[in-house]
Structure formats: C-alpha cells, structure tokens
TrEMBL record:
<feature type="domain" description="DUS-like FMN-binding">
    <location>
        <begin position="8"/>
        <end position="299"/>
    </location>
</feature>
<keyword id="KW-0560">Oxidoreductase</keyword>
<dbReference type="InterPro" id="IPR013785">
    <property type="entry name" value="Aldolase_TIM"/>
</dbReference>
<dbReference type="InterPro" id="IPR035587">
    <property type="entry name" value="DUS-like_FMN-bd"/>
</dbReference>
<keyword id="KW-0288">FMN</keyword>
<dbReference type="InterPro" id="IPR001269">
    <property type="entry name" value="DUS_fam"/>
</dbReference>
<protein>
    <recommendedName>
        <fullName>tRNA-dihydrouridine synthase</fullName>
        <ecNumber>1.3.1.-</ecNumber>
    </recommendedName>
</protein>
<dbReference type="Pfam" id="PF01207">
    <property type="entry name" value="Dus"/>
</dbReference>
<keyword id="KW-0285">Flavoprotein</keyword>
<comment type="similarity">
    <text>Belongs to the dus family.</text>
</comment>
<comment type="function">
    <text>Catalyzes the synthesis of 5,6-dihydrouridine (D), a modified base found in the D-loop of most tRNAs, via the reduction of the C5-C6 double bond in target uridines.</text>
</comment>
<keyword id="KW-0819">tRNA processing</keyword>
Length: 319
C-alpha cells in the first residue's frame, strides 16, 4: 500500500523558510500543513501568516493552511482569505493542548463541545465550497470525548481527520494511546491519518503494522529531530546517505541565513536556532553536549564556530 507522509505543523518551526529548505535538501514529505492562523478577535490576518501562505513563498510545495478558532465567523473569514490565495482546503485545529487556548474552548478544549463543532461545520459547508479537514487530539480530559464528535463529523464530507493519539491534558507527556486510536479507527466513516511520536523508521513500521488500514502518517517533531526520516521511511531503509552531515550542514546554513536576514537583532536569531537545536541535537551522538555547546555560543561567530565543530566531530565519530 502506498504511504503518504505529511508534515505536521509546528508553530515557530515549520514556516515557509523551513518547508522550502526541507523539501529541497531532504524530501520525503508529500504535503506540508502550515502552522495555524489565529485571529484573536479581530478580522485581520497578521502579516507573518500572510507571508507564510503567500503562494510565491510556497511555489514548489503542496501546502494546506490551518486555522484555530471556535467561532464560525472567524472560520468563514479565514476560508475566504485562503480561497483568494488559491487554496482549496482548510484544516481545523482541535488539537492544541495549552491551557491558554483550551480554557477559551479552542484547540483540544473544543472537542467536548460537539454542538459548537457542528455549528461551525454546518456554516462552512452551507456558505462556502471549501474542503475541510480536521486535526484533533482524542479529547482534553479523556480519549472518549472524540467518540461523541464522530457522529457529527460523519454528516459532513470532510477530507480526513488527522488524530494525534494523545489527550490535551497530557500536553506532550506520557505515551500515545494506541488502544484509544484503534477505537477511533472503528468509530468513524472518515479517513483517519495517524499522528504522534513517529521518531524513527522502526517506530513508523510498528505503527504501520498495528494499523494496517492507515496509509497517511503525519510527522512533527521527529522530522526536525531527524530530517532524513521521511525519505528513509519512503525508501524503506535505515541507512543514511553517505554525505549525511554535508547535506545537513547545507540545510542548516540555508535556514540560518534566511532567519538571520528576517529577524533583527542578535537575540531572536539565537533563540530561533536554539529552538531548532533542541530537536536537531537529538540525532547527534551526544545530544546534551551538542545542545549545551550551541546554548553557550554568545554571538554569531561563536555560534557558527560551534556548529562547525559539532558537525566535524560527528563526521569523525561516524566515519
Ligand atoms: C512547538 C510545537 C508547535 C506546534 N504547532 C502546531 C500547530 O500550529 N498546529 C497543529 O495542528 N499542531 C501543532 N503542534 C502539534 C504537532 O503538529 C503534532 O501534532 C504533535 O507534535 C504530535 O506529533 P509528533 O509526535 O510527530 O510531533 C505543535 C507541536 C509543537 C511541539
């Protein structure tokens, strides 16, 4: 069965700069979800979201925009915006676990409110011709919440439901709940995509064996931690390319230069790259030492020196 791999959106990481560089250097991802658009009460699309979705910035990528809202008017406003840009599909985020969001009844805090979900889907389908897909956790308090939402979702021609197999209350802690995900597979007519903790080819194969009816898999953090992962999954191999660190180095320099040009002042670029290294470091021989070395680098010159040393030592260790 052919496998489709999707890049799960990571706000602050998988913007158009990252997506383009990723696609160019590593490949393996069929479709990228853009991080969510949030309106905060005003019917205005922030310029950072505009840049991220601008078709010129995504010319060689398959991208699906995402919205996080619990308001039908906001949803319809974003539909109009993305349709004007030429997008056909809008993904709806019912997964965000952070209390600031869930306490307002958004993200995974909306899963316990099937009536509201119904109202928004009803208006979206009656008033527009947008294709809607969902990205959900299985609940906020417990993984049965989603089971009460499925009968509502079954009434709409959704493209798919991507499920991160955790509940909101867990944040990112604990494991994924595969029994509860199996229950989801049995409880909806919609096409499900699996999401959660795919961090290696072996992990992917375990999921594939456990859920033979699933052929769409979304990878989030695992893709930043090991950008070769999607192409290795596609090629069914655990072997890295021989020039692994050269490719990584070129990818790193590409995103570094772009973020450096886009962000002003020394602190934002440092924080940006440190965020990436929290994940990157996981596929280095000594993750803690690697991360510490990057963290210690006080200025640009020291940062680039640290990166060069890390990559050199990796080339030596692994050769
Ligand atoms: C820093 C960060 C930002 C995220 N931003 C988004 C987002 O914008 N939209 C969304 O649907 N999920 C978001 N997620 C959730 C991921 O897309 C994904 O569902 C989750 O990390 C589980 O998949 P993974 O184990 O492959 O990372 C975010 C997760 C993290 C850690």
């Amino acid at each position: 069965m052919a496998i489709t791999l999707l890049s799960s959106p990571l706000q602050g990481f998988t913007d158009f700069r990252f997506r383009n560089a990723f696609h160019h250097f590593f490949g393996g991802i069929d479709t990228f979800y853009a991080p969510y658009i949030r309106l905060d009460g005003k019917m205005v699309i922030k310029s950072s979201y505009q840049r991220d979705l601008n078709p010129e910035n995504n010319a060689t990528l398959e991208v699906i925009p995402q919205v996080m809202t619990n308001d039908a008017d906001e949803f319809l406003f974003v539909v109009k915006y993305i349709q004007e840009l030429g997008y056909k599909e809008l993904n709806w985020n019912l997964g965000c676990p952070y209390p600031m969001v869930t306490k307002q009844g958004m993200g995974s805090g909306l899963i316990c409110n099937p009536e509201k979900i119904n109202h928004i889907l009803e208006r979206a389908h009656n008033e527009t011709d947008v294709v809607v897909s969902m990205k959900m956790r299985m609940g906020y308090e417990n993984p049965e919440e989603i089971l009460d939402v499925f009968p509502i979702l079954d009434n709409y021609p959704l493209k798919n439901i991507a499920i991160h197999a955790r509940i909101g209350k867990q944040l990112y802690k604990g494991g994924v709940n595969l029994e509860a995900f199996q229950k989801c597979v049995e409880s909806t007519k919609h096409k499900l995509y699996y999401n959660g903790d795919i961090t290696s080819v072996t992990k992917f194969q375990e999921m594939q064996e456990r859920f033979p009816s699933i052929n769409h898999f979304m990878i989030g953090r695992g893709l930043i931690a090991d950008p070769f992962l999607p192409s290795m999954i596609k090629n069914n191999t655990t072997e890295y390319p021989q020039n692994r660190w050269q490719i990584f180095s070129e990818f790193h320099d590409t995103i570094y230069q772009q973020y450096d040009a886009a962000l002003s002042g020394p602190t934002p670029i440092k924080m940006k790259m440190l965020g990436f290294w929290e994940y990157f470091s996981q596929s280095f021989s000594n993750p803690q030492k690697t991360y510490k070395k990057i963290k210690k680098a006080g200025n640009k010159k020291a940062y680039l020196q640290a990166v060069a040393e890390i990559l050199n030592s990796e080339r030596t260790i692994r050769s």
